[in-house]
Amino acid sequence: MTVALETVSTGAPTTVSGLLGDAYRQLVQVCPALTARVADPAADFTRTGFSGAELTKDQGALEAFLSAEDSRIRERYDHVPRRDVAASRALHDYAWSVGLLMSGVWYLTGRVPRVRPEDVRIDLSSGTFEITPGPDLACLPDDSAGTLPGVLTVPHEEALRAELRVAVADHMEPLLSAIGPYIRRGPRALWGLVTDDLVSGIWYLGRMLGREPDSVRAATALLPSAVTPFPGGADFRHLTGGDGRQHPTRTRLGCCLYYTIRPAEACATCPRTCDAERLRRIES
Question: Which residues form the Ferric siderophore reductase C-terminal domain (predicted)?
Fold first, then answer.
């Protein structure tokens, strides 16, 4: 099944970083909820905040990252969050944003960038992510980008989806190890949150493009079921509204704990509304 959309120009490629820079810029334009920018070597932004790599190696950097999220919650919602809530919200924002930077390029162009933790920086004052286009890219054999040095060509679309799953997992694993003690939940719950954010990012992008059914199919093809380390699949189902129209939905595998901040506004897909046995599995 072909899930890529040729919405980014695929003219004569020059460098992998150039191709990715163009794709990231379009992605940011299409997705207003994605607070990100492409690195400008001449800008001061690159000297502020912390990289994803620093968050995994420097406890002071990680605690500053979590403290910034705590401050945003207090200011935005007039609410004092628990420590694990601030950490969960920070992880959710990171996983959704960085996951979409990878999955969005895949969805738009049929190419998979491998974003390393050092390729991402976060401005703690604004929560803006900065992405430095890297040299690593995977694509299909008939893609013109395959002629560039260092580009990996894979034989078919399932192999390309596998590259995306590995890229996201490799990026997130060290952060989950570092942030886990602050969140106080087990690996299944943490990887469940990453799964949810990977799926929801693709779903959101499809809605922004007016192609929700296509994005649901793409997310389902990416995660048709549990694929290590992701503990479950996209698992979409359809609900029928009062107008007779069907709407896609799914139950989240993990929880960002937003319901502790605004209980009346909990996500419709929040697992905290599920039965006690499912909640026990989520927390394990």
Answer: 252-272
